[in-house]
Structure formats: C-alpha cells, structure tokens
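Hi L.,

As promised, Molybdopterin synthase catalytic subunit:
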Amino acid sequence: MRKDTDFFELTREPLDVGAITRRVVPATCGATVVLDGYVRQWTSGKETLHLIYEAFEPMALAEMQKLSVGARGQFEIAHIGIIHRLGKLEIGETSVVIAVAAPHRKAAFAACEWLIRELKRSVPIWKKEFYADGSAWADGENVIGAE
C-alpha cells in the first residue's frame, strides 16, 4: 500500500471535512472512515463559550506521523490523513479530522478509533475551554484546572 498520500497537518483555517476526506480515497479501497471532531457546547455540565487549541507544532506533527506507523502495524489500512486546527474555535466548528482509507471497513473503523484515542493521549496539542465564569485547560476529555 502507498503511504505517500498520507498527510498530517496543523492549521488555523477552518476545516472542510469533505475535501479532507477525498484526499485519502484510493481506488484500491472499499471504505473511508472519517472522524469529524467539533467543539461542543456542554462539557461536564458546564456551558462552553469557545475553545483555544495550542500545540508544540514540530513535535505534534512528528507524533502524528508516529501514530500512522502504529496504526499500520495494527490495522490493514491504506491511507491516513490527520488535520488538527489551532487557535480560537467557536461552538460547532471542526477541531480535528481523521480520515482512514482501507480495503475493508472494519479495519478503517478500528484504526480511526485508535488514532483519535492515541492523538489525545500523546500528541502535544492542548485545549483550553472558556466558560462564562472562567476557563480551564483540558487533558483529552478531562478538565485539569480552572482559572
């Protein structure tokens, strides 16, 4: 399988999920699974006003590429694309897109789930949530400290 169509990017521009998805669709595959992760309004019972994402960009990109190696070692997949947005995001805006193409859907679903879990765990991208009464940094799904 060709790896030269894989891509790993960070951007401050809005994400076009459809256009990103089409970048990983080869003729040899029967399925592309896409995660469209977007900003939700409520987290742990608190209303979120907006988020800010920051990253150590060179390391984040390198870690995304390492994730592709890990995914390829576990799942029969053809292509991977991961794009994460940085900066201020409003409710409903897409923050991350992960697209995985595979000959068969089962591997694409499993790889996509693994990739988002590992991205949140190991890639140096940080999320700060802003509320009416303050803000807090989040670690994956957990708020780690209010300001």
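The CA atoms of residues 76 and 107 lie 6 Å apart.

Thanks again for sending the construct details.

K.
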